[in-house]
Amino acid sequence: MSSEHSLTLADYGWDEQRDNDFAEHAAQGLVPGRVVRAERGQCDVVTAAGLIRATVPPDSTGDQHVLCTGDWAALQPPTAQSAATITAILDRRSAVTRARVSGTSVGQLLAANVDIVAIVVSLADPLKQSRIERLLALAWESGGMPLVILTKADQCPDAHQKATEVADIAPGVNVLVTSATTGEGIDDVRAAITGTVVLLGRSGAGKSSLGNCLLGSDLLAINTVRDTDGKGRHTTAWRELVPLPGGGVLLDTPGLRGVGLHDVDDGLDQTFAEITDLAEHCRFTDCAHQTEPGCAVLAAIEDGDLPRRRLDSYHRLQRENAHAAARTDARLRAEAKRSAKEMGRLRKSINRSHPRKM
Ligand SMILES: Nc1nc2c(ncn2[C@@H]2O[C@H](COP(=O)(O)OP(=O)(O)OP(=O)(O)O)[C@@H](O)[C@H]2O)c(=O)[nH]1
Ligand SMILES: [Zn+2]
Fold it and tell me: Which residues form a coiled coil (predicted)?
């Protein structure tokens, strides 16, 4: 009996509101589960009966359901004849999305239903403010609450000075100083975590080390999990979603190389909240804070109240975001051209292979 079986769905973040919302699915004999790892067409899901593997059929338009770690789903439970099947994805309360590295117009979902988006930054490396701002925009946009966790404090003589610098570019965001080596700040992180937390940061930032600290001795439970699909098979599954001993759930993403922005207008406004506030006092409501007369943002720079770098960074990220939006528009136009005939053919073939309404 592994410790896996003493866990309940509540340990994975299931709550009363979800339970209420699920009533209509439950009436159809479906069960809830949370995706701990998603692949194309298949995923590992934690249900009240343990971890199972489920298939993910195409949705009613023929597109693959885009499932992601952290999603809650309604499942048709497995039978002697067939594997479990995902029939619906429950409404996401939040979603972390980035532009795809390939530069296509569709965003890539990194994590779903996260309450805290923790940006992990190593103090052993020089601070890259714009990188933090970029991740903050992504975090704000997700609908989760951003948090900055500075790691490797033991490698940095002026860790708290650095924390102040980071706090200056992260209005409204809690900034914590930690070390996985000395244990500094780990309790602060525990105290700051509610619900599901995702760690975002570049490779080597110290995410795994931090995760290990938070997990304590339960870490080994990550890799060995019993497959309970009723067929008695035992498999080893790599999971990206793990309950923390003191409460909360850790969502582990693979190290991020490039993080392109995708549709983050609001996220940028929250990241640069002091600029957004100043902008309300510009003479023109559509002021771009470039050369306009009566610009309150430029006046603040002039007065030394706002660093020039902050505005430059804001403009740069806005431009990048606008480019991503233009790509999306181009894709939507191209999709609209797809012939009705093609769509009809697609639908027929789906109805044949999946007679049940999704
Ligand atoms: N001195 C010191 N080193 C640390 C600390 N945390 C992590 N490291 C080291 O930094 C390196 C990278 O740490 P990881 O935890 O693997 O980083 P990561 O962000 O998970 O990296 P990816 O898995 O590649 O995304 C390892 O050599 C760790 O031992 C710390 O608090 N202090
Ligand atoms: Zn202005």
Answer: none
Q: Which CATH number does the domain housing residue 66 bear?
A: 2.40.50.140
Q: Are residues 244 and 122 in the same domain?
A: yes
Contact assessment for residue 85 and residue 75, using Cβ atoms and an 8 Å cutoff: yes
In one letter, which amino acid is 109?
L
What is the 178 CA–ligand 2 centroid distance (Å)?
Answer: 38
Q: Are residues 247 and 127 in the same domain?
A: yes
Torsional sign, CA 291, 297, 300, 306: negative
Ligand 1 touching residue 50 (CB < 6 A): no
Nearest atom (ligand 1) to Cα of 209: 15
**Is position 348 within any domain?**
no
Instruction: Tell whether 142 and 246 lie within a shared domain.
Output: yes
Is residue 180 within 6 Å of ligand 1 at its C-beta? Answer: yes
Nearest atom in ligand 1 to the alpha carbon of residue 211 is: 15
pLDDT attached to residue 256? 62
Beta strands in 125-164 (DSSP E): 145-151
Helix (H, G, I), strand (E, B) or coil at 13: coil
- ipTM, two decimals: 0.96
Q: Is there a single domain that holds both residue 141 and residue 248?
A: yes
Verdict on whether the full-model pTM lies above 0.90: no
pLDDT tier at 129 (50, 70, 90 boundaries)? very high
127 and 26 share one domain: no
* pLDDT score recorded for residue 224: 38
pLDDT of residue 73 exceeding 70, the answer is yes
Q: Is 296 inside a domain boundary?
A: yes
Which residues make up each annotated binding site for GTP?
151-154, 201-209
Note whether 151 and 189 are within 8 A (CB).
no
Cα angle 249, 254, 256 (rounded to 5 degrees) comes to: 120
Domain count of the chain?
3
Q: Are residues 112 and 206 in the same domain?
A: yes
What is the number of the ligand closest to the CA of 186? 1
In the prediction, which pLDDT does 135 show? 95
Binding-site annotation, residues? 151-154, 201-209, 282, 287, 289, 295
3-state secondary structure of 9: helix
- Which ligand has the nearest atom to the CA of 282? 2
